[in-house]
Amino acid sequence: MAGNTRTLSDLKREAIIQAATQAFQEFGVKGASMDKLAELANVSKRTVYNHFSTKEDLVMHLVTEQWQSAIMNITAEGVQNSVSASHKSI
Fold first, then answer.
1. What are the structural domains of the chain?
2. Nearest of 26, 29, 27, 13 to residue 63 by alpha carbon
3. What is the chain's Cα-based Rg?
């Protein structure tokens, strides 16, 4: 598979992030232990801590990811609105 450069570590990190998103929605941040995240991600608790040293680091990663996604959506909408407006004036 040329071009697929994701490592096993990358895949585990993605699994942890997905598990955290699910667990935080279901149990809340306080109710979701690192043990639970490891179980949901199918990784060891040590692997979770290798990627995120604290639950706070993991929460901040998710918040940052959401913020960046929101900014990208706003930017894309602005560009789309600008293009639409310029087409209307033609």
1. 8-88 (1.10.10.60)
2. 29
3. 18
Query: Is residue 4 pLDDT above 80, yes or no?
Result: no
CB-count burial class (<10 Å; 0-12, 13-18, 19+) for 72: exposed
**Residue 56: exposed, middle, or buried by beta-carbon count in 10 A (0-12, 13-18, 19+)?**
exposed
Torsion of CA 45, 13, 20, 61, to 10 degrees: 120
- How many residues belong to the chain? 90
Q: Which residues contact 21 (CB under 8 A, 6 or more apart)?
A: 62
Instruction: Quote the pTM value.
Output: 0.76
